[in-house]
Design brief:
By secondary structure, the protein is α/β, with parallel strands linked by helices. The protein has a single domain, classed as Purple Acid Phosphatase, chain A, domain 2 (4-Layer Sandwich). Helices cover about 25% and strands about 25% of the residues. The strands form two sheets. Strands 1, 2, 3, 4, 11, 12 and 13 form a seven-stranded mixed sheet that branches. A six-stranded mixed sheet has the order 5-6-7-8-10-9, covered by helices on one side. The protein is globular, with a radius of gyration of 17 Å. The chain starts with a strand and ends with a strand. The mean pLDDT is about 95.
């Protein structure tokens, strides 16, 4: 199976760019399954029913979120609807709406997608290393041979440690959150595809998606600044993972960028 995982989509510009490009990318690379991190897909940040529906309508099979995923209250009811293939970090407080994993049937293959959030430099969450085993066991009990983990975290070391912790038990551990792609994609010894950060899909002439002038102003003055997202020019940063459907092991992982 060829799986496309797309890094954090930023704002209207990122959504519109995917609307124009995603079909051609999926066709060119013969993609069977697509996951998109949508936690910044709304104007400003967060995710709304409008931005979620747009991404699903243009070809995403599952949407994952992160630390901004619950910022917009209008998404709460949407997250509670189990017919919507959108998940938020599994290790959030139990009061959080929605669920942390989903199971998708693609022909003869059952795919589990699990969303986790890191501890370092992030909002308070349950320790992901203490909570993820239960989620993986549940996905395997539901027949998932392929399991993808979106690990939304700040610290490189925490992401690397999670990759090694899950090696051989999941198909891929894919880092998100920093919006900057890393060059360490690899297949770990146990057959798990890994990358520290996939990157982002959005305006490249920006500071991780924010207008550069506003980011500089905040850093110079140390005062609050209302962030805005430039719309263009945009780029899509993603990885493509090929899996062995018989055992869920990853055969390859490749970074791509589309502009």
């Amino acid at each position: 199976m060829h799986i496309l995982f797309i890094g954090d989509v930023v704002g209207q510009g990122g959504c519109e760019f995917l609307r124009k490009k995603l079909h051609a990318v999926k066709t060119h690379y013969a993609i069977d399954f697509t996951v998109v991190n949508a936690e910044n897909s709304a104007v400003g940040n967060g995710v709304t029913p409008y931005s979620a529906d747009l991404l699903l309508d243009i070809g995403a099979d599952v949407l994952t979120l992160g630390n901004h995923g619950l910022r917009r209250r209008e998404i709460y009811e949407y997250l509670e609807n189990e017919n919507n293939p959108i998940i938020r970090p599994y290790n959030l407080h139990a009061s959080a709406p929605g669920r942390g994993y989903t199971v998708i049937h693609k022909g003869a293959v059952t795919i589990g997608v699990l969303n986790m959030m890191g501890m370092v430099g992030m909002e308070s969450v349950d320790n992901p290393f203490n909570t993820i085993d239960k989620a993986i066991d549940t996905l395997k009990e539901e027949g998932c041979r392929i399991i993808l983990v979106d690990f939304h975290a700040e610290a490189t070391a925490e992401k690397r440690a999670m990759g090694f912790y899950l090696d051989g038990r999941v198909s891929a551990v894919l880092g998100t959150h920093t919006h900057v792609p890393t060059a360490d994609e690899q297949i770990l010894a146990g057959g798990t595809a890994y990358i520290t950060d996939v990157g982002m899909t959005g305006p490249m002439d920006s500071c991780i998606g924010v207008k550069k002038e506003l980011a500089i102003e905040k850093m110079k003055t140390l005062l609050p600044v209302r962030f805005e997202n430039p719309d263009f020019p945009c780029s899509m940063q993603a990885v493509i993972i090929e899996t062995d459907d018989s055992n869920g092991k990853a055969l390859s992982i490749d970074r791509i960028e589309v502009s």
